[in-house]
Amino acid sequence: MERKVKVAAVSYLNTKPLLYGFKNHPVMKMTELTMDYPSVIARQLIEGSVDVALVPVAVIPKMQESHIISDFCIGAEGPVASVCLFSQVPLQEIKRIYLDYQSRTSVALLKLLVRDFWKLDVELIETSDDYQHLIGGTDAGLVIGDRALAQRKVSAYIYDLAEAWMRFTSLPFVFAAWVSNKPLPVEFIQEFNNANSIGIHNIPAVVAENPYPVFDLTAYYTQHISYPLTPAKRQGMQKFLSYLQ
Ligand SMILES: C=C(O[C@@H]1C=C(C(=O)O)C=C[C@H]1O)C(=O)O
Fold this sequence. Notes:
alpha/beta, D-Maltodextrin-Binding Protein, domain 2, 2 domains, 6-stranded mixed β-sheet, 5-stranded mixed β-sheet, 9 helices, globular, binds ligand ISJ, Chorismate dehydratase, lyase, hydro-lyase activity, MqnA, Menaquinone_biosynth
């Protein structure tokens, strides 16, 4: 490839371990890196304004061409901590749920759990701007990312979507994966994977670089988010995508 590969990454704390190794890495000579929240980078990858993105897996079926190019993802094998339904009342008393405009996968997962697992009769409300202050009474909210880690200190009831998925299917869950919208050179993919792996093997250094008093990032990076895209996670992802057909 003559030009640099345009890569869009998620701007949340959960992506820091994947990006840690990119500084001073040879892959940066081939890469132009930008960051935004998940629903924006999903649009960029679909429109073709970037070549690779850490996209919500829910958008993969919407792409004309897609290639998962990495052995790493944003996944979970139990409670993920940062994708939750937050409420002031127990699940069965919720009447309305605000959906997170920054998300694609978790909104689709929430809809699936509401219908098939929790079997709730609720009104779902799209958002386009900050809405967390509207969570109260029988109005609940789905919140993802760093804002969810903060919301954990606010809400009385917290329902973790990755945990619910595991109870529902006995499979792990993949929220986002590195996907390209065109074939890319093998040497880029190899260097890209190598750069991704560095932070995963140096979590204490990643945590040291990102002071965050709100939540224990060592626990977040080692016990909640699970980065390797294993065969079981691929199976969980296929099962999830099959529900979206
Ligand atoms: C676990 C998370 O996964 C994120 C959830 C996404 C979604 O819901 O579309 C997309 C990207 C991931 O970064 C999180 O952000 O808390």
